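Hi everyone,

Forwarding the result from last night's run.
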Amino acid sequence: MAKKSKKQQSNGTAATVALTAAGVPFTVHSYDHDPSHPSYGEEAAEAMGVSPDRVFKTLVADVDGALTVAVVPVAGQLDLKALASAAGGKRASMADPALAERTTGYVRGGISPLGQRKKLPTVLDESAIRHETICVSAGRRGLEVELAPADLATLTSAVLAPIGRG
């Protein structure tokens, strides 16, 4: 894979820069974000023509006082009890959105599990491994990256666990 110059890297997001630096193959998908759409993840799946089972949303939760990233299919919801268990905690709740944005360096609806300002513990729903590739936010609303779930798990040091529910 060709190495990008600093100027080229500055045009990407922290997520795409991290993927490029790691030498991981990925595809970028962009679409026009509609601010009135009720769901960022469902909008991404519709715009890309990809099954919602293959598009994963990045959620930031508080597990026993520690911020933790949960990556689950947009077709379902996060099971907070399962997340707490997978992260080795007792209790989980959704993190304050402003805190999630400050900590990750991304805006809500564009939080990527990759290239975060502060690397957080990550749990990836085990359904991801049933797919050859999955899509996650590339760090901006209207921008997704498609990559192998094993690569995502490796780069984020993710734990695989059943944290999503339909």
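The beta strands are 27-30, 56-63, 66-73, 77-78, 92-94, 122-125, 134-140, 143-147, 159-161, 164-165.

Cheers,
N.
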